[in-house]
Design a protein that fits this description.
Helices cover 34% and strands 11% of the residues. The protein has 232 residues and is an alpha/beta fold. Strands 1-3-2-4-6-5 form a six-stranded mixed beta sheet, with helices on both faces. The termini are far apart.
């Protein structure tokens, strides 16, 4: 399409994810026709937006992997960094900072100098889905990347799933059954390789404004995550 003007590839990890074997991320992935078409349309409407698969952000060997659902239209899809530019990122980065996982409490852009410590943020689905709702097939298609990312984590790492879809994607990547690991806020599950899965309600605008998730509830999850990392 003539209106596509992609920016140069931008990988936020110290070792480009596409160089890992198997890769945990592909900036040029177009496996899902519906998502690829929607990204093309979004790029036409917002030429300055990243509007491509959004790479993981953080350290190469994290002790904590935070797994979200998918990029938001005017957040990560625009900025190219997970949870940057939308409401959900406000609470996430502030809490990461308060518990020593981030160098700053606010993430404004991918070139703002913010760095993560012992932590990486990724999404279960790497591309912006229409209405923020990936189909089950799209989540399964993208699961190969999450599986490779989880396999690359150091032994004893903790995984924090933001929401039930991210929770289910992590279990699928491990080949585990959802009925054996039910989702629940601040619930902790043991995973293979000495790893742990910690659940939280997603820090979305809807959840925070309806008080389904409060600051105190989110901080309690990160206090537990900090303890897992420090004791790991």
């Amino acid at each position: 399409m003539a209106c596509l003007h992609y920016p140069p590839p931008f990988i936020t990890m110290s070792k480009p994810a596409s160089f890992l074997n198997p890769p945990i991320f592909d900036l040029d992935c177009r496996r899902c026709p519906r998502l690829s078409q929607f990204l093309d349309e979004t790029k036409c409407a917002y030429p300055a937006y990243h509007a491509r698969p959004v790479p993981p952000f953080g350290v190469a060997a994290p002790k904590l992997l935070v797994v979200g659902l998918a990029p938001g239209m005017h957040g990560a899809n625009a900025s190219g960094r997970p949870f940057t530019g939308d409401h959900a990122g406000i609470l996430l980065y502030r809490t990461l900072y308060d518990f020593g996982f981030s160098s700053a409490p606010v993430s404004t852009s991918r070139d703002d100098g913010l760095t993560l410590r012992d932590c990486r943020i990724t999404n279960a689905v790497k591309c912006l889905p229409p209405q923020n709702k990936p189909t089950p097939e799209e989540a399964r298609t993208c699961n190969d990347y999450l599986k490779a990312e989880l396999e690359s984590l150091p032994k004893g790492a903790a995984v924090l799933a933001l929401g039930s879809i991210a929770h289910g994607s992590v279990l699928r990547a491990f080949g585990l059954k959802l009925k054996d690991y039910p989702f629940g806020h601040n619930e902790l599950h043991e995973l293979p390789q000495g790893m742990h899965l910690l659940d939280s309600y997603h820090c979305s605008r809807y959840n925070t404004q309806t008080r389904r998730l409060t600051d105190e509830m989110f901080r309690a999850v990160f206090a537990r995550a900090r303890q897992l990392v420090d004791n790991g």
